[in-house]
């Protein structure tokens, strides 16, 4: 049974930082590409960031590039999303997603992913 568990969300003032974690039960973890997505109230789920199997390749949505950093700890079976200089428009439920991959790349489409976490709420106040 595959589980992805997000944590680290919360309420923060604009300009603040949060670090989200995604703990995964998929094994071997190093064969799963991971992505972060977010969904604001009443809107579609959007891609945020993705990381390759080894962690040396990353890709970001234009709206968060330079603001968010995705990383992974293959020994700890966890992927992180460091979010800095948060803005009210970053308010959303953040989801991590996983898919088995055979090459060291990243994936940015919702349909690319097989497994999803339950989400963690991030709320940024102005």
Q: Describe it for me?
A:
With 126 residues, the protein is mainly beta. The protein has strands at residues 4-7, 10-13, 18-24, 32-39, 45-51, 58-60, 68-73, 78-83, 92-100, 115-116, 120-125. Strands 2, 4, 5, 6, 9, 10 and 11 form a 7-stranded mixed beta sheet that branches. The radius of gyration is 13 Å and the shape is globular. The model has no long low-confidence stretch (mean pLDDT 96).
Summarize this structure as a short list of keywords or feature phrases.
single chain; 126 residues; mainly beta; 7-stranded mixed sheet; 4-stranded antiparallel sheet; globular
From the spread of the alpha carbons, the general shape counts as globular
Beta percentage is over 45%
- What is the rounded distance between the termini? 40 Å
The percent of residues in helical segments reads under 10%
| Main sheet attributes: strand count, strand direction, barrel closure | 7 strands, mixed
User: Helical element count?
Assistant: 0
Which oligomeric state applies?
single chain
Give the radius of gyration: 13 Å
Query: Strand tally, please?
Result: 11
Please, what is the average pLDDT?
A: 96
Low-pLDDT residue intervals, each spanning 5 or more residues = none
Could you give the order of the helices and strands? EEEEEEEEEEE
Structural class computed from helices and strand pairing: mainly beta
